[in-house]
C-alpha cells in the first residue's frame, strides 16, 4: 500500500525550471515538494555553460525563431530582465557572460547555483527529494489532485496537492520517443544532456488529456566529434564543433545537403544531420575559418580538441589529399572535391547554390584544410506540452486543431491543477533556439505564480 502525504504543490523535476518554481512557491509560503528522479539535482542545467539569455526584443526573437508560439515568446522577452533581477534578489551569484549574447543575459555557475536554490527551498520550508521519479498524476473528475511517485527505497508514495508543475526537462533521453518523432538513427545521436530527462512530464500530461504542440521532431543540440571519440559529460562543451555553420558540411556521398549557415548557433545544421544523413557528416574548413573565434575558442582549437578526444580529423594541404582521406573514411572523395570546388566557384561568382548558402558566403580555399567527422547531439526537445500564457496545460479534448483556419482565435480548455515549465513546454523554440535556461527561468516563475493562485482558490 502506498504511503500518503499532502502538499500545497508538487514540482516534478529539479532543473532550472523546477528549482525556480519550487523556490517561488516556497518563499511565497506554499508547502511545496520538489521531486527529482536523478541522484543529484540540477538537471541538464548542471552540465550547461550556465548562460541565462534570450533576445532583446520580441521582433528580434520572432525573426530568429518565426515558427515558435508568439504569445509564449513575447512572455519570454517581456519577463527575462525582471526574472534575472529576481535571481539576484534571492542571492544567486550572477556574472556578466564572457562573450557577447544578443540580449539580456547573465552567467551562473551551474553546480553552485543548484546547491544555492536547493538550500533556499529547504530553508523556506519546502523539500527537494532525490531519486524519486514520477509514476503518474492523480486525477479526480478531470482535475489533477496530486502525484504518485516511487521513493528511493522502492516504496510507492501518493502526494495529494492542489497544483502540480511538470518540469522534467523534455524527452531527449527517451529512445522510443526520439525514434518516433526525431530520427530512426538514434545510434548516431549523442545525448548531450543529463540522462534522466525521458519525457516523464510529457507522458504524464498526455495520459491525463494534455495536448501536445507541433514541432515534436525539432530539438536543440550541437555536433560533436563522432565516434571513436570518447566524450564524457564534462567534455561536452570542449567536443562541440561550434564553427559548423561557417564550414562546408558533406554527407557520405560527398555532397552538401543543407544550408549550413541558416543559424549561427549550429542547431539547425545539427538537426539536419540527424534527420537527413542518418547522423553522420564531415566538416571541411580552411585557414581563414581556423583563426576565427566561435564562443570562446578558435575553430582550430576546437579541431585540435576533437582529435585529442579520439575523433577522426585530418589536416591536409590540398583538396586532392582531402579527397583521398575521405575515401579512406568511406566517403566519396572525388565527389567531395567536386562539391567544394563548385561551392567556391559559386561564392566567388556570387551565384546561388543548391542547397542554398544565405550567410557565411566565404570560399573554402586557403590551405591547409581541416576535416572533422561529426555526429549530432541532442540537448533538449523543442516540442512538448501545449500550455497557455499561465503555463496551464491545455486539454486536448477541449482544444481545436492548431491546423484549423482561425485556430489562434479559439479558446483552449486546460487540465485543471496541472502546469508545465522549462523544456516540458513545447513550441517556445521551434527548430531555432532562443535560450534554454531563460525559458526555464521565465516559465518556472510563471507556472509557480499560477499554482499559487490556484492554491489560494482551492
UniProtKB/TrEMBL annotation:
Q: Which cofactor does it need?
A: FAD
Leader sequence residues = none
Keywords in UniProt for this one? FAD, Flavoprotein, Oxidoreductase
* Residue ranges that the Swiss-Prot or TrEMBL entry lists as coiled coil: none
InterPro entries (alphabetical): FAD-dep_OxRdtase_2_FAD-bd, FAD-oxidoreductase_2, FAD/NAD-bd_sf, Succ_DH/fumarate_Rdtase_cat_sf
Alphabetized Gene3D superfamilies for the sequence: FAD/NAD(P)-binding domain, Succinate dehydrogenase/fumarate reductase flavoprotein, catalytic domain
UniProt GO MF annotations: oxidoreductase activity
Q: What is this protein called?
A: FAD-dependent oxidoreductase
Amino acid at each position: 500500500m502506498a504511503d500518503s502525504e499532502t502538499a500545497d504543490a508538487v514540482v516534478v523535476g529539479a532543473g532550472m525550471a523546477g528549482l525556480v518554481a519550487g523556490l517561488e512557491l516556497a518563499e511565497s509560503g506554499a508547502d511545496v515538494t520538489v521531486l527529482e528522479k536523478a541522484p543529484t539535482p540540477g538537471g541538464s542545467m548542471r552540465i550547461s555553460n550556465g548562460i541565462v539569455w534570450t533576445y532583446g526584443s520580441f521582433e528580434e526573437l520572432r525573426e530568429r525563431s518565426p515558427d515558435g508560439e508568439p504569445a509564449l515568446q513575447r512572455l519570454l522577452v517581456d519577463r527575462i530582465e525582471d526574472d534575472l533581477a529576481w535571481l539576484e534578489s534571492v542571492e544567486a551569484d550572477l556574472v556578466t557572460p564572457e562573450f557577447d549574447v544578443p540580449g539580456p543575459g547573465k552567467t551562473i555557475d551551474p553546480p553552485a547555483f543548484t546547491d544555492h536554490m536547493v538550500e533556499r527551498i529547504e530553508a523556506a520550508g519546502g523539500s527537494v527529494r532525490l531519486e524519486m521519479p514520477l509514476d503518474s498524476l492523480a486525477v479526480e473528475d478531470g482535475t489533477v489532485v496530486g502525484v504518485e511517485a516511487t521513493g528511493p527505497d522502492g516504496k510507492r508514495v501518493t502526494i495529494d496537492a492542489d497544483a502540480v508543475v511538470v518540469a522534467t526537462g523534455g524527452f531527449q533521453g527517451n529512445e522510443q520517443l526520439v525514434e518516433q518523432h526525431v530520427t530512426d538513427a538514434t545510434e548516431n545521436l549523442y545525448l548531450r544532456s543529463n540522462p534522466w530527462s525521458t519525457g516523464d512530464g510529457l507522458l504524464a500530461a498526455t495520459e491525463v488529456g494534455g495536448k501536445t504542440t507541433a514541432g515534436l521532431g525539432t530539438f536543440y543540440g550541437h555536433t560533436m566529434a563522432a565516434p571513436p571519440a570518447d566524450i564524457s559529460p564534462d567534455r561536452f562543451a570542449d567536443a562541440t564543433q561550434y564553427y559548423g555553420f561557417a564550414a562546408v558540411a558533406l554527407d557520405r556521398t560527398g555532397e552538401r545537403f543543407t544550408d549550413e549557415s541558416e543559424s549561427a548557433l549550429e542547431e539547425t545544421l545539427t538537426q539536419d544531420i540527424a534527420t537527413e544523413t542518418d547522423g553522420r557528416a564531415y566538416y571541411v574548413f580552411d585557414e581563414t575559418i581556423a583563426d576565427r573565434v566561435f564562443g570562446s575558442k578558435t575553430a582550430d582549437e576546437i579541431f585540435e580538441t576533437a582529435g585529442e578526444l579520439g575523433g577522426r580529423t585530418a589536416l591536409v594541404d590540398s583538396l586532392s589529399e582531402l579527397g583521398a582521406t575521405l575515401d579512406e573514411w568511406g566517403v566519396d572523395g572525388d565527389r567531395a572535391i567536386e562539391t567544394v570546388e563548385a561551392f567556391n566557384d559559386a561564392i566567388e561568382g556570387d551565384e546561388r547554390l543548391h542547397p542554398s548558402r544565405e550567410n557565411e558566403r566565404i570560399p573554402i580555399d586557403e590551405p591547409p584544410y581541416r576535416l572533422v567527422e561529426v555526429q549530432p547531439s541532442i540537448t533538449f526537445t523543442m516540442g512538448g506540452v501545449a500550455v497557455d500564457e499561465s503555463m496551464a496545460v491545455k486539454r486536448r479534448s477541449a482544444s481545436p486543431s492548431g491546423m484549423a483556419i482561425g485556430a489562434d482565435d479559439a479558446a483552449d480548455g486546460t487540465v485543471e491543477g496541472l502546469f508545465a515549465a522549462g523544456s516540458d513546454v513545447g513550441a517556445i523554440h521551434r527548430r531555432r533556439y532562443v535560450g534554454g535556461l531563460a525559458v526555464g527561468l521565465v516559465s518556472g516563475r510563471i507556472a509557480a505564480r499560477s499554482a499559487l493562485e490556484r492554491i489560494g482558490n482551492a
